[in-house]
Amino acid sequence: MKHLLSKFVALGIILLTVSVYFFGCTTAETTTGKLAFQQKDYVKAEQELSKGVITDKADDEAWYMLGFSQVEVGKYDEAKKSFKSALAISNKFGDYIRNYWIDKYNAGINAFNSGTKSLGKKDSVTANKNFNDALNSFKAASNIIPDSISSFQMMGDCYTYLGKMDEALKMYTSILDKSKSKADATMIAKILYKSGMSAREGEQWDKALDIFKRVTEIPYLPKDNTYYENSVFNIGFSNYQIATKMATENKGDFKPYLNEAIKVLEPLAASSKENAILINTYEILYNAYDALGMTEKAQDALKKKQDLQKK
Question: Which CATH homologous superfamily contains domain 101-177?
Answer without folding.
Answer: Tetratricopeptide repeat domain (1.25.40.10)
